[in-house]
Design brief:
With 109 residues, the protein is mainly α. It has one domain (2-105). Helices cover 80% and strands 0% of the residues. The chain has helices at 2-32, 42-54, 56-67, 72-79, 83-105.
């Protein structure tokens, strides 16, 4: 079971990010003709890429929790770490991403 989760986690992040990006771009195009830059779009993807360079485990935790919809225990099993490690990583990743997006937009998002 755990081996299947790990394989799933390894492939889930990039695919979900591409699908999310495509859906947001198409939705924006239909609404106004041009996509808008907002958190959740390219800024969030760029911040997640920077997080991956900063701390790969935290980036995997974000992918499992946010894109994969996994809970703390499922994420821990998939990544082979304890739930406490997932909680710490999730908290740190949220703070790090919030700071990155705040800097990108010059205001609290």
């Amino acid at each position: 079971m755990i081996a299947r989760w790990r394989g799933f986690v390894g492939s889930i992040g990039p695919g979900f990010r591409r699908a999310t990006s495509y859906a947001q771009t198409e939705s924006a195009r239909r609404r106004s003709g041009t996509p808008r830059r907002r958190p959740g779009g390219s800024a969030a993807r760029d911040a997640l890429r920077r997080l991956e360079q900063h701390d790969a485990r935290q980036a995997r935790i974000v992918e499992c929790r946010f894109f994969g919809g996994m809970n703390i225990h499922e994420t821990g099993e998939a990544l082979g770490v304890s739930p406490a490690t997932v909680k710490r990583g999730w908290t740190m990743a949220q703070v790090w991403l919030h700071r990155e997006l705040t800097v990108a937009y010059g205001a609290d998002t």
